[in-house]
Every structure is written in C-alpha cells, then in structure tokens.
Design a protein that fits this description.
The protein contains 7 helices and 9 strands, in the order E-H-E-E-H-E-E-E-H-E-H-E-H-E-H-H. The chain is α/β, with parallel strands linked by helices and about 220 residues long. The structure holds fe (ii) ion.
C-alpha cells in the first residue's frame, strides 16, 4: 500500500508538531500495511517562499528518516495551494514529487475563476502533471470546470465514510476523474485515516487496485 498524500513530517506544517508525533504516525502507518509514503506538507504561496519551504521540509525529512525504524520508504513531496501566478515562481518544479513531474495541487474553497483555472494549464505547459488533492471536497459544479483540463484526481479514504463525499466519490469515479486514493493524514486524525485507507480496499474493490497501481508508478 502506498500513501501519496500524507502530513507526517515533524514541524513541516500542522500535520505533526514534533518528532514523537511523526513516529506515532509512522508506526500506525506500518501497522496498517503502508509500504511507501510521499510526504506532502502544505505549501501556501501567500505566506511562504519555495526556498524556505524546501529547507524546512528537507530538514524534517532528514530528521524523520534518521529515526525511521519501520520498513516504510519515505519520499519527498508537497501539497501546493493553487493561486494565480504560481506557475511563474522560479522553483515551482521543485515542489513536484521526488524524481517526477507530478505535483499535488490543493484548490481553494472559493469559486474557481478562469484566471485560476488557467494557472493549471500554465503548470502543465511547463511539464508538470497536476494531481488535484481530495477532489471529492469540491462540488460537481466546481469539479466539472476541471474536465477540459487534463488533470488527475486524488480522493481521501476517510471521505468514503461521509455520505455527501462518498456520493461524490462514486460519481467522480464513474466520470473517470479519480486516479489515486490517499490518507491525507494529520496528527489529529492519523489513526482513523490510515485505518480507512486500508479498509477502503473492501469498499472500492477493483478501483482501489487501480489507484494503488497508479501510485506505484509515481515512486519508481
Ligand atoms: Fe492534505
């Protein structure tokens, strides 16, 4: 099992406030059978710079890797909030998942206008493949604006336990808008989110297998 969206790095964001928090998360992930984790701390372009973020993330990654006594392989990534002008940032490609061109993008909760949607096309034009984080969080009215764009979609396993979001997940899977499932773990919900990621196999069946196969291609 591979988790491609996970807030587990110590003090890199609000996912973990200490190394102990991160170790608790890691041990639980291991207990539920996760073999690889792409660590995706939040990057908010409006109050952080890419340089500062990368320094903080890499330090946290090294700190956790040094004490990781599970067999879980850790990879570097980020969850990047989409804002206009994002693609113009010089080092934007460094926010892609380690050794790849895949970038995890978090959409704002406000209405997505054309300027914002153009930003996705701009990211693609510089060679990035855009994965929309927890696509089920957004209404179909919003999500259909993404259909003309060649994006990939990621769902959070725990959303399968919320009626509205589970309904959206079914709909978005039918419309081939979902490519990945992940935990989106933070310290306040790590136990349930890892558990749900494991259990989602029984809810999603062959779709789950496909999502995990897709995830495996990100970490070669
Ligand atoms: Fe997240």
């Amino acid at each position: 099992m591979i988790d491609i969206h996970c807030h587990i790095l110590p003090k890199a964001d609000h996912g973990s406030y200490s190394l102990e928090d991160s170790l608790k998360q890691l041990k639980t992930a291991h207990k539920y059978g996760i073999k690889s984790i792409i660590c995706t701390p939040h990057f908010y372009p409006f109050n952080d710079s890419i340089d500062k973020f990368l320094t903080r993330r890499d330090k946290a990654y090294d700190e956790l890797s040094a004490v990781n006594d599970t067999e879980i392989k850790l990879y570097k990534g980020a969850e990047v909030r989409l804002v206009t002008g994002l693609s113009k940032q010089k080092k934007i490609k460094k926010l892609a998942f380690e050794n790849s061109n895949y970038i995890l993008i978090e959409m704002p909760s406000s209405i997505w206008n054309n300027m914002l949607l153009n930003e996705i096309a701009n990211l693609q034009s510089i060679g990035l493949t855009v994965i929309i984080a927890h696509i089920e969080r957004y209404s179909f009215r919003q999500v259909q604006k993404l259909m003309a764009l060649d994006v990939l979609g990621q769902i959070n396993a725990y959303s399968l336990y919320s009626p509205v979001q589970a309904w959206r997940i079914r709909k978005y899977i039918r419309k081939s808008m979902v490519d990945f499932i992940a935990s989106d773990t933070h310290i306040y919900n790590y136990f349930l989110t890892f558990r749900f990621l494991k259990k989602s196999r029984f809810i999603l069946g062959s779709s789950y297998t496909k999502f995990m196969d897709n995830a495996a291609k990100l970490i070669v």
